[in-house]
């Protein structure tokens, strides 16, 4: 079966711009989580969605937002980009909350 | 608060066993995971263990859990050069009405030919 698909794989944006990243979970998985990976901070939890509802949000500013659609696909948006937002953004889906997270290949965002 | 710690680096010779260690703090964690990340790639789920288990074996991988000491280890038997990667330990913890994964900083495994 198809894995977790993240698009695009790479993005280069300018400071001040906004960006939208997409994640298609494994078919049947209703939970989608987002993580940010940077060399300095490691892997940090951004948010989790289940059945179109945001269940939890990590310690990130309001510039980071997301949503989940009825088909479980999820998007995250970062507005007013800063240089420090450069990171690998990873999406994970799971059939059941708390168990069996499968990650996508990530979107590498570079802010210049 | 919750925290997961790992050693940063491990170097082994091809064919030897590798043991990567991890400590965690949340005693209520339900599942503990090991992920592998190769350069430029996402996270590959290697194996996981439920918190009421002591050991899990999956082909070359053995996971040991010492719940009393909150210590988790991953043993890779007959380590190959293709096993060179960063290995992340993670705990699934319940917080603010949902689960989230708390990751360690990763252990870089280098396998020497």
Quick recap:
The complex is a heterodimer of chains A (112) and B (113). Helices cover 0% and strands 54% of the residues of chain A.
Q: What is the string of helix and strand elements of chain B?
A: EEEEEEEEEEE
What composes the largest sheet of chain A?
A: 7 strands, mixed
Radius of gyration of chain B: 14 Å
Radius of gyration of chain A: 13 Å
DSSP helix fraction of chain A? under 10%
| Largest sheet descriptor of chain B | 6 strands, mixed
Overall body shape of chain B = globular
Give short descriptive properties of this protein.
heterodimer; A: 112 residues; seven-stranded mixed sheet; globular; B: 113 residues; mainly beta; six-stranded mixed sheet; five-stranded antiparallel sheet
Task: Explain this structure.
The complex is a heterodimer of chains A (112) and B (113). Chain A has strands at residues 5-7, 10-13, 19-24, 31-38, 42-50, 53-57, 64-68, 74-78, 87-94, 102-103, 107-111. With 112 residues, chain A is mainly beta. The mean pLDDT of chain A is 94. Chain B has 113 residues and is mainly beta. Helices cover 0% and strands 60% of the residues of chain B. In chain B, the strands form two sheets. In chain B, strands 2, 4, 5, 9, 10 and 11 form a six-stranded mixed β-sheet that branches. Chain B is globular. The mean pLDDT of chain B is 92. The interface between A and B is medium-sized, with 24 and 26 residues.
């Amino acid at each position: 079966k198809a894995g977790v698909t993240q698009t695009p794989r790479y993005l280069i944006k300018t400071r001040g711009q906004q960006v939208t990243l997409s994640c298609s979970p494994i078919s049947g998985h209703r939970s989608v989580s987002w993580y940010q990976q940077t060399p300095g901070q490691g892997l940090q939890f951004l948010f989790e969605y289940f059945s179109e509802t945001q269940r939890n949000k990590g310690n990130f500013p309001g510039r980071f937002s997301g949503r989940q659609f009825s088909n479980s696909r999820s998007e995250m948006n970062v507005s007013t980009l800063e240089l420090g937002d450069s990171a690998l953004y990873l999406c994970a889906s799971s059939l059941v909350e708390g168990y069996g997270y499968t990650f996508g290949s990530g979107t590498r965002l570079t802010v210049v | 608060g919750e925290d997961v710690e790992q050693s940063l680096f491990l170097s082994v010779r091809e064919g030897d066993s590798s043991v990567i260690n991890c400590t965690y703090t949340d005693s209520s964690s339900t599942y503990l995971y090991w992920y592998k990340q190769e350069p430029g790639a996402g996270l590959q789920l290697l194996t996981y263990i439920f918190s009421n288990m002591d050991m899990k074996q999956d082909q070359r991988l053995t996971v040991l859990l010492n719940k009393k000491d909150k210590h988790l280890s991953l043993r890779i038997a007959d380590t190959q050069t293709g096993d060179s990667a960063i290995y992340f330990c993670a705990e699934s913890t319940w917080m603010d009405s949902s689960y989230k994964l708390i990751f360690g900083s990763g252990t870089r495994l280098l396998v020497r030919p």
